[in-house]
Q: What sequence folds into this?
């Protein structure tokens, strides 16, 4: 498997960040950073990372299935994550979630047919005082309303 | 960047640089006393540093409230093993969003705190474990770390003192459990985030089986001020045994939700009415979760309370991570309990049976209850299930799920009863079916 030079540089730095003999520590960051580039954790990626770090494939799988941000299924170009946990719930997060499902015609962890958008109902993302909160990929959007979400979706449609 | 207007009632110690131009830069940091505490600490003995932190009565800001100076003193400084400092930046407790601001607006303050902790326990390397969702903060911290290396505040022979220290950021990938210290260490070592049995505690066998100091971002960010201005000055800002200020994340039904730095022991009612601008639309206060979702709820009449660890513990709740969730009279307490339990059921790592099974069953019963399908016996069942989880797990997640549930049932039993016999939720026109 080949990665971009930037990602290779990141890997290089990562494995040097831990005491000798503890390269396995790079596993989770490596998987997440690679997923950012490949879109999902593919069997090839599991194989590649397991070889590079000297960790068995089954141990890599065990890690992949534990962490909610690591996923085997490819999400949309714009992965819209809506928090409905307590603070967001009090500020209309659940209604915002329902609105997004209707608007995009998809449910939790589903992707629109054109691959542009996917939705995920997430647990607390750390924006409780500016609720309800939405994250699109890694970008935070605070104090959201159905109207603001509509505008956000329209503006993202234009991004290719 | 600031996400809410500051309040004139704030006492700005950790947030004093918030709002300054380029507050995250080394230049701004140095122009405002930055790294002066490190210079001072380089001239102190480890015992003197730990003594100063003890004097400050600084207690862990992650939730447990353990005295930081005492934690540091448990590290066997003369052990031949390398020692590590780990900053817990896995902020995930529902209701809490303050570490994010500390890292975004003042990353050098955290770095300086880590360096001073390193001096205190003879550690020469550290990790900042950041939740995966906070990717932009990794970029900010990596920039600050690079700047610190460039100017001799990290790396070999720091400021010509002979002290070496390397610091790295490490991303998580979505798991609330990894905010628990031993699960965090497992995750740092590239494994599933399940808790370790203790003893040994991390101070003796932590990261890579070596002595480790693990502190929350806010705890470490308080250290430079303590060394700079003295532990006594920090202690004097708060109440006895609850020194300093605290970053309160206020959310929910108030006019001005936000993160505010207030002295420990600040009145909860004043916090709601004066700092956060009072209740929205003039509605009545019903309840407050005082310290993040793991903390037992307070009824409105219990809210005349000083917000420090000991006062809340006396009221059978907790200050936790100081995530203050304010709920008005329109809030359905069954729904609140259900949503919180859904979270714990999702986040239980599955290692301990009472937590894995307990959270799942409680979620099912509470969901059924909220939909009007509950039986009167369920109320006692919820209470019994939750009580059977208490103290029966490796880590506090089981307790964190059980304690608030017990409080919701005990304090709002009438609302549970109002959902019985197929009656729809009295607070909602159409009680939402829950996606799981």
A:
């Amino acid at each position: 498997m080949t990665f971009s030079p930037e990602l290779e540089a990141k890997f290089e730095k990562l494995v040097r960040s831990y005491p000798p003999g503890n390269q396995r520590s790079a596993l989770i960051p490596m998987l997440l950073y690679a997923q950012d580039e490949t879109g999902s954790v593919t069997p090839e990626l599991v194989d590649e990372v397991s070889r590079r770090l000297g960790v068995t494939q089954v141990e890599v799988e065990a890690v992949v299935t534990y962490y909610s941000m690591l996923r085997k299924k490819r999400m949309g170009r714009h992965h819209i994550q809506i928090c409905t946990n307590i603070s967001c719930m009090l500020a209309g997060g659940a209604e915002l979630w329902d609105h997004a499902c209707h608007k995009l015609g998809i449910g939790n962890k589903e992707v629109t047919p054109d691959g542009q958008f996917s939705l995920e109902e997430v647990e607390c993302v750390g924006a409780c005082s500016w609720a309800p909160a939405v994250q699109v990929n890694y970008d935070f959007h605070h104090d959201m309303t159905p109207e603001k979400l509509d505008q956000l979706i329209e503006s993202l449609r234009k991004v290719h | 960047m600031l996400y809410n207007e500051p309040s004139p009632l704030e006492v700005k110690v950790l947030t004093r640089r918030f709002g300054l131009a380029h507050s995250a830069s080394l230049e701004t940091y140095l122009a405002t006393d930055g790294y002066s505490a490190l210079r001072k600490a380089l001239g102190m003995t480890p015992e003197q540093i730990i003594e100063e932190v003890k004097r400050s009565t600084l207690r862990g800001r992650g939730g447990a409230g353990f005295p930081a100076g005492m934690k540091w003193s448990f590290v066997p400084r003369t052990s031949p093993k390398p020692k590590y400092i780990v900053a817990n930046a896995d902020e995930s407790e529902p209701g809490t969003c303050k570490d994010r601001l500390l890292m975004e607006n003042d990353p050098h303050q955290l770095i300086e705190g880590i360096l001073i902790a390193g001096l205190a326990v003879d550690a020469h390397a550290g990790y900042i474990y950041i939740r995966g969702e906070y990717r932009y903060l990794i970029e900010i911290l990596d920039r600050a770390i690079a700047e610190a290396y460039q100017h001799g505040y990290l790396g070999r022979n720091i400021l010509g003192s002979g002290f070496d220290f390397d610091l790295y950021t490490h991303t998580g990938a979505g798991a609330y459990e990894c905010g628990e210290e031993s699960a965090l260490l497992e995750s740092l070592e590239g494994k599933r985030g399940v808790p370790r049995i203790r003893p040994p505690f991390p101070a003796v066998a932590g990261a890579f089986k070596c002595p480790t100091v693990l502190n929350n971002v806010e705890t470490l960010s308080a250290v430079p001020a303590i060394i700079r201005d003295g532990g006594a000055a920090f202690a004097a800002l708060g109440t006895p045994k609850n020194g300093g200020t605290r970053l309160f994340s206020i959310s929910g039904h108030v006019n001005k939700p936000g993160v505010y730095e207030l002295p420990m022991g600040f009145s909860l009612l004043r916090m709601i009415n004066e700092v956060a601008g009072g209740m929205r639309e003039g509605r009545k206060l019903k309840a407050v979760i005082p310290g993040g979702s793991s903390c037992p709820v307070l009824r409105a009449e219990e809210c005349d309370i000083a917000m420090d660890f000991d006062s809340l513990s006396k009221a059978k709740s907790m200050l936790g991570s100081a995530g203050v969730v304010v709920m008005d009279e329109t809030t359905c307490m069954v729904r609140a309990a259900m949503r919180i339990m859904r979270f714990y059921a999702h986040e239980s790592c599955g290692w301990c049976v009472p937590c894995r099974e307990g959270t799942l069953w409680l979620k099912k019963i509470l969901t059924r209850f909220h939909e009007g399908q509950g039986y009167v016996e369920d109320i006692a069942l919820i209470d019994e299930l939750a009580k059977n989880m208490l103290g029966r797990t490796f880590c506090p997640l089981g307790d964190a799920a059980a304690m608030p549930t017990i409080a919701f049932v005990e304090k709002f039993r009438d609302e549970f009863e109002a959902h019985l016999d197929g009656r729809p939720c009295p607070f909602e026109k159409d009680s939402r079916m829950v996606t799981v």
User: Anything to note?
Assistant: Strands of chain A lie at 78-83, 117-122, 134-136, 139-141.
